[in-house]
Design a protein that fits this description.
The complex is a heterodimer of chains A (about 120) and B (about 110). Chain A is an all-beta fold. Chain A has no helices and eleven strands. In chain A, strands 2, 4, 5, 6, 9, 10 and 11 form a seven-stranded mixed β-sheet that branches. In chain A, strands 1-3-8-7 form a four-stranded antiparallel β-sheet, with no helix packed on it. Chain A is globular, with a radius of gyration of 14 Å. The model of chain A has no long low-confidence stretch (mean pLDDT about 90). Chain B is mainly β and about 110 residues long. Helices cover about 5% and strands about 60% of the residues of chain B. In chain B, the strands form two sheets. In chain B, strands 2, 4, 5, 9, 10 and 11 form a six-stranded mixed β-sheet that branches. A five-stranded antiparallel β-sheet of chain B has the order 1-3-8-7-6, with no helix packed on it. In chain B, a hairpin with a 4-residue loop joins strand 7 and strand 8. At the A-B interface, strand 4, strand 5, strand 9 and strand 10 of A face strand 4, strand 5 and strand 10 of B.
Chain lengths: ~120, ~110
Amino acid sequence: NAGVTQTPKFQVLKTGQSMTLQCAQDMNHEYMSWYRQDPGMGLRLIHYSVGAGITDQGEVPNGYNVSRSTTEDFPLRLLSAAPSQTSVYFCASSNWPPTSSYNSPLHFGNGTRLTVT
Amino acid sequence: KNEVEQSPQNLTAQEGEFITINCSYSVGISALHWLQQHPGGGIVSLFMLSSGKKKHGRLIATINIQEKHSSLHITASHPRDSAVYICAAKKGEWETSGSRLTFGEGTQLTVNP
């Protein structure tokens, strides 16, 4: 199993450009999520999904779009990149709904480092 | 004030020392995660617990729901344990609030040989 695969690993954009960060998992996880990690701050949830066709906003959703057409894929779209979106982005997945023992660890991708100039 | 606070922010230890990293949270939670972020940036889930204690190898995680506090202990620390350790709290009831997590800022651990 590849686990959670994120592409690309690095990306540089100019202000106003759009792009899609890809996330795919092969563990048949219903729950998938996107986080951004900035210096001096903890990971912050952007969007999440509990199954195909179901998405919801997290803590910092502005400027980002998601869709979940399949269980495996959960792409994150930057509509019009801004320097404030310079960050490291992580995708994560887990079982959903959780088991009765709450044993649903998160599986993370290796991250995408995005710079917006 | 962050809802999830970790201490210390930075910790340097000698190989073999017993390590404790603390996590306090100010909201009701249903579960707490401990994560390890490697120097290369990858994040690995270490524990998820809602009560009591869990142990895996040299790692032990405890949680006290009443005191809103969790600790991660590393016994017989080793330089390969050097990483950022992050706690993340899941607020509210699992079924009603999905899997939203609030993360601490992380504790940078350096273990010297």
